[in-house]
Design goal:
homodimer; 345 residues; alpha/beta; 434 Repressor (Amino-terminal Domain); Rossmann fold; 6-stranded parallel β-sheet; 12 helices; DNA-binding
Chain lengths: 345, 345
DNA sequence: TTGTACGCGTTATCAG
DNA sequence: CTGATAACGCGTACAA
């Protein structure tokens, strides 16, 4: 059995409650006894038992992480290690621990969340994704359990604290960027439409085209998985069009990589024949040939701010709903150029 | 306040202890009362409080994950999401939750582990890396706390349950593969020598050369970070040699990607001028140009088996030390070929 | 400034 | 088969 507060109390010749107060650094304890108690703790190698503390104080100093389905391709995106790092850092700063749950199916994930929450394992939860219809989010909301989402909630945006980019504006900007480069035939390759981020980006793309009075063609809008294989299918469809696009807005770097490869195989040159701009600016985007022009969305900060605002919320229940927007930034590399004039592929 | 066992007891007209037994599905309770109690639980929407249960039973049904330093480049490797998925699945099967700890420095990580362990937050720990000198491992060992490591422990291999590949053999095999292809000038690009996996792979490489009586040149052995930039530096060194290698054994796909890019910039063609084989077979390895021949090390299984064997150990303290070797497999793609005879780069 | 006593929600022991 | 009752380790009114 481990060293408890009682052992320390005995050694220091004080009551257990005094030891408890020393741990909490209560101002109502004399420096002298504090010192005495601390020495005893040191001598015995005492470490507080979090479980007991949690039970007594009804708070765990732990936050729960809800990941998307582990079978989901999204899970493999380098996005995750990075947000995780951000969250972890934000949590560490406030001495919070991390509790995770994943699962293969939505139900598994949901059960995991319920266990964390009802089981009292965590004080709050951060959702690492934002889907269009989400059981987990609904549950958390109804239960009034503290949580924040990374991304933009599909509904009740005003009532849910979230950390997000301005994906609408970002996509509008990059589309404009391509337009200003002289492109008029610009296609959009997005991921799963169940992810809110996808719809936001699509909207931004459409807005830019409309602002510039460019035609908005359905054939130019493609949705595939957030990954490689997705990109490949998309490209083939696009290039077989009568008037193939001269530029592509791709919703994710990984997909862009797939696009790049397929293009390469088809003998289409980037950026000479076709320009590409994508999102996230993960490490890989500078490793591709050519390096990708990509929107840096501050992934680390998304996580960091999410953790911080969740903890605030946990520690102060009347904290107002917040919406934190992380700045984005277009990182220009070599995948964009003025459009070709008259190419035949 | 949430629904407790007492509320259920009251509604079902039984004692709290009876409810507890029903939850544990004790065989000594009549089916009739079980049914009655279950109905009450249902009606009240009861969920057991894990914290209280942990305190009483001195076990948490949670396992702790120790990640490498978040500032470490290794952290960004696609390896992690995948092991994580494996661990998560292994844990889910046995209804264990996951508790994580990371940190920027070794000390932060160490403190995190101590808190998990002494704080009684977890029943066991899995180390997601294996370093040459590791404070955390030493601590866990001295405390006789259940843990398993993913990778090969540097010392006390016989006394530590671990899940690993046979990296020595794997590297020996791929080196032989290159030799049999006709290569004689084969270089090795490895990662951080503090990681045990690096030294294992280096050893395997050397063994193959020795077995075939090929010279073992120091200039052919390079260590860089486990990432992109590392790869680039390495290649330049290698190609500026008097007799540059015709084949490369690269210890990680990500590094190999960097190598590929640098080679491309220098106008060196893969596999025509130089062959490459690397490790891990992460998703990216088939997305590179050319697709990488890579050793699949069963990352998911590493995690899965680690979780399973840890849980076994936790549930049965006298479980013997185990060493689980996950099979590897060479996935041949397009980065290897017979060597060039007489090329001038 | 410090000690006493009780409660947090369960499990486990021991009667009955 | 079931019900009291005592832990589990700590926080915290309430007393002193």
């Amino acid at each position: 059995m481990a060293i408890t507060i009682k052992d320390v109390a005995r050694l220091a010749n004080v009551a257990p409650s005094t030891v408890s107060r020393v741990i909490a650094n209560s101002p109502r304890i004399s420096e002298k006894t504090k010192e005495k108690v601390r020495e005893a703790m040191e001598e015995l190698g005492y470490h507080p038992n979090f479980i007991a503390r949690s039970l007594a104080s009804q708070s765990t100093q732990a936050i729960g992480l809800v990941m998307p389905s582990s079978t989901d391709k999204v899970f493999q995106n380098p996005f995750f290690p990075t947000v995780l790092r951000g969250i972890s850092e934000g949590a560490n700063e406030k001495q919070y621990a991390l509790h995770m749950t994943t699962g293969k199916t939505e139900d598994e994930i949901f059960d995991g969340v319920v266990q964390m929450v009802q089981g009292g394992r965590v004080d709050g939860v951060v959702l690492l994704y934002s889907k269009v219809e989400d059981k987990v989010l609904t549950y958390l909301q109804k239960r009034e359990f503290p949580f924040v989402v990374i991304g933009k909630p599909f509904k009740h945006v005003e009532e849910i604290t979230h950390v997000d980019n301005d994906n609408f504006r970002a996509t509008k900007e990059v589309t404009e960027y391509l337009i200003n480069l002289g492109h008029e035939a610009i296609a959009f390759i997005g991921g799963d439409l169940n992810l809110v981020v996808t719809v936001e980006r699509l909207l931004g793309y459409e807005k830019a085209l409309r602002d510039f009075n460019l035609p908005l063609k359905q054939e130019y809008i493609i949705h595939e998985e957030f990954l490689r294989e997705g990109g490949q299918g998309a490209v083939k469809e696009l290039l077989s069009l009568e008037q193939p696009p001269t530029a592509l807005v791709v919703a994710d770097d990984l997909m862009a990589l797939g696009v790049l490869n397929t293009l390469d195989e088809m003998g289409v040159s980037v950026p000479d024949d076709i320009s590409i701009v994508s999102f996230n600016n993960v490490m890989l985007s500078e490793m591709s040939r050519p390096p990708l022009t990509s929107v840096d969305i501050g992934i680390f900060d998304l996580g960091f701010e999410a953790a911080k605002s969740l903890i605030q919320k946990v520690e102060n229940p009347k904290e107002p709903v917040k919406r934190i927007i992380i700045q984005h930034q277009l990182i220009k590399r070599l995948s964009c150029e003025v459009p070709c004039q008259n190419k035949n592929y």
